[in-house]
Amino acid sequence: MNGLDHVYPPEKLDQPQFVCNMEYFYARLLNVRTAYRHYEQKSATEVVRHQLTSLQLSAASELRETANSFRKVAESELKKIGVEHRKTFSTLRSLTKNKSIIVTRPDKGRGVVIMDREDYVKKMNKILDDRSAFTLINYDPTLDNENELIRFLLVLKKEGFISDQEFKLSCPTGSRPARIYGVPKLHKKGEDYPLRPVMSATKTVAYGLATSKTHFIFDQKMYVQHNGVAMGAPLAPIIADIFMSHLEETLMDRLKESGVCEWYRYVDDTFVLIEPTTKAENVLEILNNFHPSISFTHQLETNGSLPFLDVWVTRSTETKKFQTAVYRKETFTSLMIKWDSFVPVSYKTASVVPMIQRALAMCSTYSSLAIKFENIRQIGLHNGYPLSFIDTRIGIGLSRGGTSISIPGGDSRKWTHSRPKRRKY
């Protein structure tokens, strides 16, 4: 499977782009430059001509022959590839025309999910039937909301709160209703793969400015969200972080009294250490009583291990410390941009490097790092990447990641590292 991000090469060579690239290569190779005064001394319609030396003309002739040979080979290869991919294109077109299915991405990771349209609509309607958060309306309020926001911005400009430039940047024009869709949560098998609602809010009235009065379309029906921060708004993650900070400031004393020793949080995910005599249900009850719209769930450690985000945390019986490694959900498909995908090499590099950076940042032992590197090699090979390409990126990561290996004594090994800074690979 190639995935939804795979790009097939064109069946025909782009002749104008090819000629443009060869001319640019020729100019860089032979250092052919045009002085700006040549353009200043001539009229707008007159052609600027270059005076080339005999050496440059000879090189241009050789380059032309090489380019023509390359073009013939490229055209032949593209025709062969086109024949191989026609069956795939035919299958994709038939899937596009099939209105009884929905082709989408999973909630976590890469992959392709094909759902029955009726089942998809049924699950989305179940989410939108929550009248405490959404209301079905029979009109499009886009123009009304846009006019209301413009009038409010005019008042702010008149009173000097915003400048003319800020008014022009903030003033909405050509707004449209948001679109909502759902992505399946494949990691929740026991719940019949529920959907996570995702809202595309770009070019909406409230995008970037407001956090309420969000209306959207689903299945030719108009809804308005009247509870909580507007889904899809750029401010939503910031407001969520502010809310969680407020929760911590309000409840931390009670949580410590109930037996919480350590509390670590990333956005709305927390990693908590509690006393052995403390019941997790009691801590959960304190959190869930904070606000009626917020519901916390919890997961306890199993055999001394617990996943937190994409980190696998394990108790070390030898050092009495925590050891960490990279964690992958069961739904991880090992899918990445294929090596034969028609995209720049930088895109393929960007598919491998983050996995290496994640391993360097999260693996706290030499053995777990070696296992993860071997896993990265297998993932790359599965997607058609040359082993030499992957090993080169791993070597660069090791040399730039600030890692060090120390052997205190005996056969015991302890691997320490510092979090690698972002560097160019």
Summarize the structure.
With 425 residues, the chain is of the alpha+beta class. Helix content is 43%, strand content 18%. It folds into 4 domains: 15-97, no CATH class; 113-228, no CATH class; 235-300; 304-425, no CATH class.
Any overview of this molecule?
With 425 residues, the chain is an alpha+beta fold. It has 4 domains: 83 residues, no CATH class; 116 residues, no CATH class; 66 residues; 122 residues, no CATH class. It is built from 11 helices and 14 strands. The strands form 5 sheets. Strands 3-7-6-4-5 form a 5-stranded mixed beta sheet, covered by helices on one side. A 3-stranded antiparallel beta sheet has the order 10-11-12. Strands 1-2 form a two-stranded antiparallel sheet. The longest helix has 44 residues. The radius of gyration is 29 Å and the shape is globular. The chain starts with 14 loop residues before the first helix and ends in an 8-residue tail after the last strand. The C terminus is likely disordered.
Tags for this model:
five-stranded mixed sheet, globular, three-stranded antiparallel sheet, single chain, 425 residues, alpha+beta, 43% helix
Compute the number of strand runs: 14
Using only C-alpha atoms, the radius of gyration works out to 29 Å
How would you spell out the order of helices and strands? HHHEEHEHHEEEEHEEHEEEHHHEE
Estimate percent helicity: 40-55%
SSE blueprint:
Layout: H1 15-30, H2 36-40, H3 54-97, E1 101-104, E2 113-116, H4 117-128, E3 134-137, H5 142-158, H6 164-170, E4 178-184, E5 195-200, E6 214-218, E7 221-225, H7 236-257, E8 260-266, E9 269-274, H8 280-288, E10 305-308, E11 311-315, E12 322-326, H9 345-362, H10 366-382, H11 387-400, E13 403-409, E14 412-417
Parallel strand pairs: 4-6
Antiparallel strand pairs: 1-2, 3-7, 4-5, 6-7, 8-9, 10-11, 11-12, 13-14
